[in-house]
Amino acid sequence: MDASNDAAVGRATLAKVTLRLIPFMFLLYIIAFLDRVNVGFAALQMNEDLGFSDVVYGFGAGIFFIGYFIFEVPSNLIMERVGARVWIARIMITWGIISAAMFLVSGPISFYVLRFLLGVAEAGFFPGMILYLTYWFPARERAKAVALFMTAIPIAGVVGSPLSGLLLTLDGLGGLAGWQVMFLAEGIPAVLLGFVVLLYLPNGPNDASWLNPEGRDWLRGALERENRIKSDHGEYTTRQALTNSKVWLLAAVYFGVVTGVYGVGLWLPLIIEGFSGYGDLTVGLMSAIPYVFGAIGMVAFAWHSDATGERRWHVAVAALIATGGLVLTGLVGGSIVLQMAALSVAALGIYSTLATFWSLPTAFLSGTAAAGIALVNSVGNLGGFVGPYAVGYLTEATGSPYAGMLFLAVLILAAGFLALAVRHARSLEAVEEMISPVITVPGASDTRAGG
User: Which numeric CATH code is attached to 21-206+224-439?
Assistant: First the structure.
């Protein structure tokens, strides 16, 4: 087909793929993120009801990520073997059951066990989603697609914070405490959506009956050319991906970022309750505010990154903003407004790193990308254990969460510097420069910043 027709087919195909897949994946990830962080709202009642100290809560909140880490890579490799549709459905159904079962927690041991099992059940979901997007979106379009999908993280906070606060007020319903009602109500949707996945989600473009043959051919051709260029630039076997210094450098960057995401996210309701003294519903409403800024920052950074073709500095600048916000939380005094402003700046920076970051590993991992993507995510998500536990330990030791915020600030700042070092490990931009002229929809902007 001629260039103008090819451009039209490409734009129409990507628009249809975006409209069909991204909203549904967005919804799935809202449920996933809500079910892993709603323990932060449960803590407003559960810690007192069950006598949990800050250290017990921090350890239990974070142990989710130990189970997640252990089973992450195997889960993603299984997904490539059995297909996205079946495996994502399995993940959602099992995690929904375990999330709902959190209402049975009666002490530290049951808390630790169920949080660990929740991590095991959910392992592979996020990197599976990232891998799945590589089946549908060429590299030049991927940061926007990932951003639209990952905006579900802060949106889960925007929607889930008031919802969780409201559910906590239903104390006594069915003879259950408010935190027990919340776990049950927020776990069931994951199970139901798991069955919807089996009916709705195709394994890849070849199974997309809603694309016309011309569109399927265009998309398949664009992605095959991209993979061929990446393979020529250096194909990674599973073993090479798991032992490659570039992958581990990216894992270190992600570790610092994730430490901040969950160090703040799993303590946010308790921090706000501490400086405001407000009740559960008001704390839930206030907790939504930082997530609003996180969502705005995430989309803005990702779109600008795609427009310029630059990745590393976007991650680094966002990390610097997050560091500033976290440091300010202890310098603005007792003002509720200023405390919320500092937390909002921190959230904007933290979440702005995420979507742009994921364009880095997918820029050069090809063939067995599942192993490399899963490794980056699983090692990075160990920060989900370190962050909440460190904040709990430092809060109990010092009597204030500020020492924990400073700890998170140091790790996020280090992640920003490491992101700048990625170019010395491999010229990722060079790979994208080679790919983009081949697979970008003709007529798209080719403006690129130096990086």
Answer: 1.20.1250.20
